[in-house]
Specification:
single chain; about 110 residues; mainly alpha; two-stranded antiparallel sheet; 2 strands; globular
């Protein structure tokens, strides 16, 4: 019975991670901020390409609300906003490394 309860708990954890990072662009956003040092809204939008301004705004707000990003608003004209990974966001970077390694080994 204990093994079954443990399996359910693991599923909940994976499900929670999927809900938090399951947005169409969230993984890519975290990747560019964490590994490519792309921090400004416009630069993120250009880097991703197909994302709309409203989608990027929504995804960034959700990542901020979930504790992965900090938003720095410099209160300038024109607007200057930058994003930075929090400790939680930085702790996710090794997961990217494993995903990349797995992809290189298993995907064509």
């Amino acid at each position: 019975m204990k093994k079954s309860a443990l399996a359910v708990e693991r599923c909940k954890t994976v499900s929670t991670i999927q809900k938090i990072l399951g947005g169409k662009w969230k993984i890519e956003i975290l990747y560019y901020i964490g590994f490519r040092d792309v921090r400004r809204f416009g630069a993120l939008r250009r880097q991703i390409g197909d994302i709309t301004e409203s989608s990027l705004t929504k995804q960034l707000r959700e990542l901020e609300a979930d504790g992965f990003l900090i938003r720095h608003d410099f209160q300038e004209v024109p607007p200057h906003v930058e994003y930075e990974l929090t400790g939680l966001g930085k702790s996710f970077l090794p997961v990217f490394e494993h995903m990349k390694q797995w992809g290189e080994e298993n995907l064509p």
